[in-house]
Design a protein that fits this description.
10 helices, 1% strand, 2 domains, two-stranded antiparallel ribbon, 57% helix
Length: 309
């Protein structure tokens, strides 16, 4: 796959701050345990802010994931920075910050560390603006930790930030992420000589975020089954867990982002050509039923791709 498509795969998912690692981070080897310690510190700082703001605590169940990879952690860390910057803009009048595309090489723990470090800086702006003097004590960690552990704590912080910002994740944001995944799936289908890149799926009323959440979990399970056939690895998510009724668009966004990241990764592994199917514009008012229809298109694509491998 050409560099232009690789750049699109990252940039289309989100725009983020051009971060460099601090001098300290650059001067030493960053391991997953160091990333976890920094993320844990960030979580504690966010909790101090939540207490002052009087916002609810996010106690939603964790994603049933396993074997997260560094690039998947990186994508979630990008989302973390974006949400931290949003909170800083709302509370501390901080400037909008954007991140550079992911490095065109294998993602390393130091890359994730840099993003979390940037998110922490944004959160500290909020803390100072609110006059919070209580200090968080960073705890050293001796034991190693997997990328999955870091992935989960980042997801936890992202969900809590959803409850602190005034601009919550909307169905339209999920719709966009699923659309990105459809583009990558179309490129993978074209690579297999399949012409029907956008299967037609009827619109269904009365769909809730929980319905979309469950369908996207099924999509991730399909991807995890066929990824090894093309020499790729992706995060494992169980679709057999009960989906709570109080699922919000922010929870669905987490799943959609995983899908977009994984399909972009597989497109890169296979070096596929650029394909831009005519998706059309999003509805003026996007509701969960619209997102469900788009997710159903993605599911049909993935089933076709699985049959072709």
């Amino acid at each position: 796959m050409g560099n232009s498509f690789a750049a699109l795969s990252i940039c289309a998912v989100a725009l983020f701050l051009n971060l460099g690692l601090s001098a300290t981070a650059k001067a030493q080897t960053i391991e997953n345990k160091d990333v976890f310690v920094l993320a844990d510190q960030l979580a504690d700082e966010v909790e101090l802010i939540r207490a002052v703001m009087g916002r609810p605590y996010d106690d939603s169940p964790r994603l049933p994931v396993s074997q997260a990879l560094q690039y998947e952690v990186y994508f979630q860390a990008q989302t973390l920075f974006r949400k931290a910057n949003q909170l800083a803009r709302e509370i501390a009048a901080a400037p909008r910050r954007r991140a550079a595309p992911a490095p065109e090489r294998d993602i390393e723990p130091a890359d994730v560390y840099g993003l979390i470090e940037g998110a922490l800086e944004q959160v500290m702006l909020v803390k100072n603006e609110l006059g919070i003097e209580e200090q968080v004590q960073s705890q050293e960690r001796q034991a190693s930790i997997s990328a999955t552990g870091i992935f989960l704590i980042i997801i936890d912080i992202n969900r809590q930030l959803n409850l602190l910002t005034s601009e919550a994740i909307r169905p339209a944001d999920v719709y966009e992420e699923v659309s990105f995944a459809i583009v990558y799936a179309a490129a993978l289908l074209a690579n297999r000589g399949i012409e029907n890149l956008l299967p037609e799926v009827p619109f269904e009323n009365y769909k809730r975020p929980a319905d979309v959440y469950g369908l996207l979990l099924e999509c991730i399970e399909i991807v995890s089954e066929f990824a090894p056939k093309v020499g790729g690895e992706v995060l494992g998510v169980s679709s057999r867990r009960n989906v709570p009724d109080d699922i919000e668009p922010g929870h669905v966004y987490d799943i959609a982002r995983i899908l977009a990241a994984d399909l972009a990764h597989l497109a890169s592994v296979l070096d596929v050509e650029e394909v831009y199917p005519g998706l059309g514009s999003a509805p003026k008012h996007v509701f969960p039923s619209h997102v469900f229809q788009r997710a159903s298109v993605l599911q049909s694509q993935l089933l076709m791709l699985d049959d072709a491998l």
